[in-house]
Amino acid sequence: MADPKIRLKRSSVEAKIPTADQLPLGEVALNTYDGKLYASKNVGIGTTVFAVNPWSVGVGTNSYNTYFTSGNVGIGSTNPTTRLDVDGNANISGVVTATTFSGSASNMTGLTGASAATYGSSTLSPVITVNSDGKITGISTATISGGGTTRTVNRYVATASQTLFPSTGSVTYTVGYIDVFINGTRLDSTEFTATNGTSITLTTGATVNDIVELIAFENVDLSGDDLGGARDTATLTTNSIASGITTTGTVTLSKTGVLISVHPVGISSGWLRLYTRSDLATADANRVRTVDPDPGSGVILETITSGISTVYFSPQTIFASAEDTPINTFNYRFTKDGGAGITTFTFKYVSLES
């Protein structure tokens, strides 16, 4: 080296940094207040002053804190753009604390206590456990149990001063969920008592021949198989009857469902009617086929067949038992056309209530 001598300058003024003019090449300056050592560097077009130890060291006897007060630190990077810019991997055995995280985190592991899997289905709901630190510590599943409501219409013809409906048998409803109508007018809740889930009592007795309707609602379990939706079939076979003769009987279906089609086999020409209640089937006995049924007369369907051909209902027909206690049997009437013989009807339907 041309000049092996190092000249030392010093200052005790806080934050005092020498200028290039004050610190020629080959000289160093010590700030005794800040604990910083400065030197000059040739940058081609002149000199610049830099801190030999840009960090700060705290005071103490056994341990010290080392820190930077400005600028960025690069590890594997010559041009750091953030306070710490690491080009490569970092191995940290401790807690990393940050206000936000960015990136996909696709390669991060050990974030939760859950295993890789698909949780939940149409009958299972995922249950997520989170600890006090906000970390997911486990995921399990629980069976979904749903609830729903069935609506049943019950119709009665009142006797003089009758207050109890039904007078025999029962209806099924959830207390607080029943509407009562007399001759089409809905009663206020103060005009009847409905507290037992099986019957109602009018505050004032009905007039003879009043039409009393109970619109009853009942909570039902809609989980698992009770959701229904299963397709099914049912058949009815008539007696051997002559042309113009009407036969009656019942066919077994689900309590509630949707009719898709009916297929006749045998001597099959005739007029078929299906009803929601047995008493309404009796009341419809004298109606002729050229007259449409009245609203509320309980006719689920009527079809006139002239041979062996499937009748497809469009739109499909919703049916439900309207008996005081819903049952699976539905009354029918069949009037024969053509030659005498036996007829079998096959119903296809979707079961909504078993």
Task: Describe the structure using short key phrases.
four-stranded mixed β-sheet, 3 domains, 354 residues, mainly beta, elongated, Jelly Rolls
What does it look like?
This protein has one helix at residues 278-283; strands spanning 7-11, 27-31, 36-42, 47-51, 55-57, 66-68, 73-75, 84-86, 124-130, 136-143, 147-157, 164-165, 178-182, 185-186, 192-193, 200-202, 211-221, 230-237, 246-252, 256-266, 270-275, 299-305, 311-320, 329-336, 343-353. The chain has 354 residues and is mainly β.
Write a brief caption for the model:
The protein is mainly β and 354 residues long.
Identify low-pLDDT runs. Answer: none
Span from first to last CA?
104 Å
CATH topology of the largest domain: Jelly Rolls
- Cross-sheet strand order for the largest sheet: 1-2-3-4
Largest sheet report: 4 strands, mixed
Q: Based on the structure given, which CATH architecture of the largest domain is correct?
A: Sandwich
**Number of strand segments:** 25
- Helix fraction, binned, reads under 10%
Shape descriptor:
elongated
| Beta-strand fraction estimate | 35-45%
Element pattern in H and E: EEEEEEEEEEEEEEEEEEEEEHEEEE
Mean pLDDT: 84
Rg over CA atoms, rounded to whole Å, is 45 Å
Structural class: mainly beta
- Can you identify the CATH class of the largest domain? Mainly Beta
